User: Fold these one by one.
Assistant:
Number 1:
Amino acid sequence: MASATAALSPADAEKLSKLQSDVAALDQISENEKSGFINLVARYLSGEAQYVEWSKIQTPTDEVVVPYDALAPVPEGPSEIKKLLDKLVVLKLNGGLGTTMGCTGPKSVIEVRNGLTFLDLIVIQIESLNNEYGCKVPLLLMNSFNTHDDTSKIVERYANSNVEIHTFNQSQYPRLVVEDFKPLPSKGNTGKDAWYPPGHGDVFPSLKNSGKLDALISQGKEYVFVANSDNLGAIVDLRILNHLVNNKNEYCMEVTPKTLADVKGGTLISYEGKVQLLEIAQVPDEHVSEFKSIQKFKIFNTNNLWVNLLAIDRVVGQNALKTEIIPNPKEVDGIKVLQLETAAGAAIKFFDHAVGANVPRSRFLPVKATSDLLLVQSDLYTLSGGFVTRSPSRTNPANPSIELGPEFKKVGNFLSRFKSIPSIIELDSLKVTGDVWFGAGVVLKGKVTIAAKPGVKLEIPDNAVIADKDINGPEDF
């Protein structure tokens, strides 16, 4: 604690001391959570340098960010593969709610395709690995206090699968009232919205505090594969695991080439002899356009991370994870609050022999909105054995860009507006605005814009083929 508070002004030190006594009185959270929170706030107040010196940034070499094709092939024979998989644990970040897509409960229970949810697909994938190689790769779910109760019930569904599923909660921190720097729960707000989960950078201390890390190490597990539960491309990759084991890399971040859709994503750089994540928030204003350019920073972080368990134990034990703090201002019932968060990718610089792996785009298929759902439910993808695979019939390596209006934002509304999902194998871009309804068997090709006139319902007839067209009414078919 001393080191973090040493740089504080007398006013900030007093602020922190008052906050500490307020937090001590909150009986909803553990001692670990209280000290974790106070540490985070102390680091925030001391104004640790977030900016990087632009001139020191170097583009990482292929030794640091290894091209996927340069990874050694996986050893031959099922017994060798079983040996590898016996070292592995899969951890999915499961703290998010489906609210932005109009769903209640954890986002991971949204149906993706054929009536199967994100969580169903994850369990089926690990189940098929365990069946094929006779191994016991366990699944860990890191929940937040928002998703814990629902997830505990849902997990019972998989009692008969051959996947051992463990859940644990990430930390629960109080939101800070901006005006007087008091924790929101100590001002009479007893609801869930007085609290927040502090971002996925919390995965490492939470894994340790839950007791799960020690248990896994004692079972002989060596690596954890961490990924967002809504990334359908984040499947176990034996080549990456094999590379890390052979090269004794403690940490690996999967990156993939940037497209114009990813210009805000964090990138890997070499900085003062270490590999580290550079996020847009750390970039000085005068360099933001350079950061967004695809010429200089060609890759971005997929948030698929592979980390050595003993190394996690070491850095958490040394309290060494001082990852960049992301201040996230919010408003609760008209009160301005602040929540301080951290990201798991930023931890890369605290691990030894850390590397990036430059992986194919297929390993990054996140579903953040109904426009993504349209992609994965269409004929552009097929689902087999829990794996979502892109159709080889599409010649363009990039996916179509899809923009749907607010009428499609909620999953329920989205589904009701399509009699069936259109064929989009040859689509380049689609923009839909207004009260639009799609018939069955519609085919979309090239650049398509469909804009219903205000107050008018526009129905796309069954089996319509729309190629490179702007549609504003029935007369345009």
Number 2:
Amino acid sequence: MESGKQLTGTLALAVFTATLGSLQYGYSIGVINTPQKVIEKHYGRALGVWSERVAVLSENSTEEEELSEVGQHPSVIMYWSLSVAIFSIGGMVSSFLVGFVGDLRGRIKGMLVINVLAIAAGLLMGFCRMWKPHIMVILGRAVMGFYCGLTSGLVPMYIGEIAPKAYRGALGTFHQLAIVIGILISQVIGLDFILGNDDMWPLLLGLSGAPAILQSLLLPLCPESPRFLYITLGKEQEARKSLYRLKGPYDATSDLEEMRREKDEADKEARVSILSLIRSSVYRHQLLVALMMHLSQQFSGINAIFYYSTAIFFRAGVAQPVYATIGVGVINTIFTLVSVALVDRAGRRTLCLAGLGGMCCCAIAMTVGLKLQNDYSWMSYVSMSAIFLFVCFFEIGPGPIPWFIVAELFSQGPRPAAIALAGCCNWTSNFIIGMTFPYIQGWLDSYVFILFAGLLFGFTVFTYLRVPETKGKTFEEIASVFQKGRKQLPLSPKDDTELQQLKTTSDA
């Protein structure tokens, strides 16, 4: 293997340590769903609803009926909905701060400092019985959402900057892999006979902050991003040392020369802010592609599967739908591993097209199965198979690729602002789907996934027409693709300078 391009132990440690933040993100997404009825019971008790019901409950009432009635109380519904939604709100707010935190003291120190938020959130939820559980959980979820909004930007940024070009896609996919592993872990230990029960549910929620402790111990052992050290801070020798730690002994002249050229251009211009990035005509196409890819991830309908898969399986006639939901999590993880293996071979664009097109077909099949399952019993197998295949196609491309392709589309200057905007777009879309899907489902019933099929078809067409292949390409080659549609347009001096910044940049 060519020197400087091999996978070293330090690089593996750095990627593993960074993705512990992604693991917390995934765990926090999934952990709130499984013990819903148990948590609602404690909310009802704290609000005085549960004790009032106990006095009038019939002796023949089952515990499941009692939990259901408490969960339908308006106050419990309000606090439960807020417990779920506040996580996305926290992420929406903090995603704008990704660039600031990443550039303030560096990627490593940034991830280290924000772990205070994750640990604090875990403590708030873990000790929620010491005060009002509904308030403590909501506060903990808000702080955890704020943390996850930051880590969902910092992790792909750091990995994209330290990864060798040949493995940039595969290592970038590890962010999504850690997320789906976190979701799976939360589903398994959230079962009622493990931690998802009346006694252990605070511990289940509190464990959301546990990976932050391990990450805080390992981060000091990881090298800082050499691109940050050289281009942002101007520390060439420290950047050289970081390159040697990440890639082993090799001739780093070409890497340092590329960073020097990028730094020279970046020094001529003021730092690219979020507002200037939105206004810039030079970056507009790249930004459109980045935002549309994140929209395709969230508006594909995948969160409808993750959030409501248990209910969907129940409608499909599964006796133990919670285990089918865990099965979705297992498939989720397996096919993310498939994406890791394929992304630097098949390419980003190819996998996204295959994934979006396959999900579109599955959404149609799911609709047919749900609509006809009362007439034909075998149709329930069609809808369940469509769910599993839907998840498979999602994790092949549309799931992992949007997280790291933003770092490939932008050079060092606008990259933090672009990642912040894309992250905010992702979190906002997640929030919208989470809040509106129950109402859309009530309105469209079995036809709900036809809506997603239409959106997926539109995203597939957009990807085919506008998204370039970035596999193995330098920034100069990527920029030349975006410039094709601008050749007939006169460039202002500012636009020309911004283009030169892209042209003189090479690998992320």
Number 3:
Amino acid sequence: MIFSISIYNIRLSSSSYYYSSSFCSIAPIPYSKPKPKQLPLNRTFASLSDMDATSSPGLYPLHRCKTLHLVRHAQGIHNVAGEKDYDAYLSEELFDAHLTPLGWQQVDNLRKHVQETGLSKKIDLVIVSPLLRTMQTAVGVFGGEGYKNGIDVPPLMVADAGESHRPVISSLNCPPFVAVELCREHLGVHPCDRRKSISEYQPLFPAIDFSLIESDEDILWEAITREKNEEVAVRGMKFLNWLWTRKEKEIAIITHSGFLYHTLSAFGSDCHPSVKSEICKHFANCELRSVVIVDRSMMGSDPATTNYPGKIPSGLDLPSDVADEKPSEKGVDNDGIRSRNN
């Protein structure tokens, strides 16, 4: 798989700027339309073997690509306690940590962003780690507007779920939400990363689909054994491979810092170092990054929906380059001169 990173244009006051997270910098772009640069003719005759692999573009069939919108959950109570004292992560008081009031503000701001950019209308599926803080973030960002009584659809979140002090969040006009264990945070030792039973979550998040989770209780988390970084990375690759079993093309994934960092660190070695750095750096709370994954090993089976076969109606269509090859096959070169060997 290969990740493709986007660069976003941002309009600020009377100037136009672009933000490139590859270099973490803001640079002005003049309004005057730049003149197109002419490619030196001699460059077009260079050997392909001379091209730097990190600077050459990649090209793949569209139906073998998926767009992922990766989101780390908003600030949880464990983030605050752990930054003050790392040992706090061992506290049972942080079991299945919920969002802080500031975390909910972060959710509101990201929700505003995805609506203003039109991203919320493009999402085909929302995948969420089955912990309280990730589910609160997911429904807060990608959920529907205010819930109305009398509408016969289950809400994404009931009022005040997980000490949220929030009203009901509707599932109207929303993509499906699916809980998946593979994208959980580091497993073990830290109570904040242990989930409640699914039977406890379902009344709080009625419209989230928990059917892919095999055990009601959390059998993956162990009190004395912390999952190794390499094991998280392997689990992350299993998760990405599993995505190819889904038909959806544009997917939001709400997950955790450690899971994202160790999963993405496997990518970017064939890119420019700044792109590698962009892919692999840690996520901030409620940060969203959009990437593309490519199926280069035929794992997926999605048919091409935009390709068109051509020749309808059928007709003669011999390309000129093929026409050049045919006389050469008969002993005539491209100038119409018969080979001396014949």
